[in-house]
From TrEMBL:
A Pfam family hit: AAA_31
Origin: domain of life: Bacteria
SUPFAM superfamilies documented for this protein: P-loop containing nucleoside triphosphate hydrolases
The protein's name: AAA family ATPase
Ranges of residues in domain AAA: 119-279
Length: 402
């Protein structure tokens, strides 16, 4: 015989008042969490570097670094002397100065002539959890450590990249700090007016804010009312003047083929698609290209039939190399589908990235990790290698006619 439960039945009805109450509760909860993560105030601090690390970046040994730093008339940063004077710690800005002046890395036109030949790179993927935003920040940091000046542009209303830059979007920023004013009035507003510095020397940002979603209503309304409105080229035109000020402009897009994502793709010279080697992620990437292809007739009719990317790079991220992982199978699918678009570099899954995510940071933000430097290097080195590949790709084009 079944005994009727004496537990009271839950009332699962949710009213608009209930949603409002939950929203206020969650707002307070996230405010408290951010205080713990970014105390005091939403602010981050760049890492410092040892003389050994700086010497390695410059392609010299530590003795040579010490000589160059202390010789008479040296203009190189001397860092902060530790112990017996043979050990030095360098700030990020000092480290970048060493790389720019001493390393064999090719100097950019920005350093040589005062005017950059900036390239625009977009990171895009439909699938959430693909490490897209973290990868965007890591690429910017990796390129800056090669002496480059980088501008990040956050096109995702979730503003995750903005928060990785140390800015609390909902409390510190408004829609006027984003690309939105330019979207509304491209003839009267300049994107350069909303560029902000970040905690990381060499990286500036155009932030995002939840109100950025308004662009998804404004742009189609203009398509309907303005004859010949090129909804896909707004950002391309706005970013053009900034190419002279930055070696790289890196765009982070929402996980959807939104109007801002389309603008990012059509503005970009190169594209990076971080892809976790799992079946659903692979299928999502296929859908991305199918939908993007559906848009191309509009581009051709609008006079942009010559659009091209310098490269499209599929970067396998958060790769699980355990014996039970499906990564080998999905990797073979990616190889068959994308061929030479697939990068030879892979970013492995790591607790370093998971720990960093909790603190709104990346592997490049970590000076020392409690899990050990070898574990830190395992995740950092592939990202450095990828940045080196991208930078060499474009450095070889400097001074050439394309």
């Amino acid at each position: 015989m079944l005994v009727k439960s004496e537990f009271p039945e839950l009332n699962r009805t949710v009213t608009l008042d209930g949603v409002e109450e939950l929203s206020k509760k969650l707002d307070q909860l996230t405010r408290d969490l951010r205080k713990d993560i970014l105390t005091p105030n939403p602010r981050k601090h760049a890492p410092t570097f040892t003389s050994t690390q700086v010497a390695e970046m410059c392609g010299i040994d530590r003795a040579r670094l010490h000589y160059l730093a202390t010789r008479e008339g040296s203009t190189l940063p001397q860092g902060e002397v530790q112990g017996n004077g043979r050990i030095r710690n360098f700030s990020l800005a000092e480290t970048r100065a060493w790389v720019q002046q001493v390393s064999p890395i090719k100097r950019s036109p920005l350093l040589e002539k005062g005017e950059a030949a900036g390239r625009i790179v977009v990171t895009s993927n439909f699938k959430g959890g693909s490490c897209k935003t973290t990868t965007t920040m890591c690429i910017a940091q990796g390129l800056s450590l090669r002496g480059r000046k980088v501008l990040l542009v956050d096109l995702d209303p979730q503003a995750s990249l903005t928060e990785l830059c140390g800015l609390y979007a909902e409390k510190m920023l408004g829609e006027d700090d984003t690309v939105l004013p330019f979207i509304y009035q491209p003839n009267d507003v300049e994107l350069g007016d909303v560029v902000q510095p970040t905690y990381w020397d060499g990286i500036d940002v155009i932030p995002a804010h939840p109100t950025l979603f308004a662009a998804e209503f404004w742009i189609p309304s203009q398509v309907k009312t303005v004859k010949g409105y090129k909804f896909w080229s707004i950002l391309r035109d706005g970013l053009a003047p900034l190419r002279r000020k930055y070696d790289y402009i890196i765009l982070d897009t929402a996980p959807s083929l939104s109007y801002l994502t389309i603008n990012g793709l059509m503005a970009a010279d190169g594209m990076v698609m971080p892809l976790v080697p799992e079946s659903l992620d692979f299928i999502s990437s296929v859908s991305f290209w199918s939908l993007f292809n559906d848009m191309t007739p509009a581009f051709r009719e609008g006079g942009d039939s010559e659009k091209k990317f310098d490269f499209v790079s599929i970067l396998l991220s958060r790769v699980d190399n355990s014996s039970t992982s499906s990564a080998p199978i999905v990797r073979s699918w990616v190889q068959a589908a994308y061929g030479h678009w697939m990068s030879q570099t892979e970013v492995p899954a790591s607790s370093v990235m998971s720990t960093g995510a909790v603190g709104l940071s990346t592997v490049f933000d970590v000076s020392k990790w409690e899990g050990g430097n070898k574990t830190l290097a395992r995740i950092r080195e592939p990202l450095e290698e990828y940045c080196r590949w991208m930078d060499d790709f474009y450095a070889n084009k400097w001074g050439t006619t394309e």
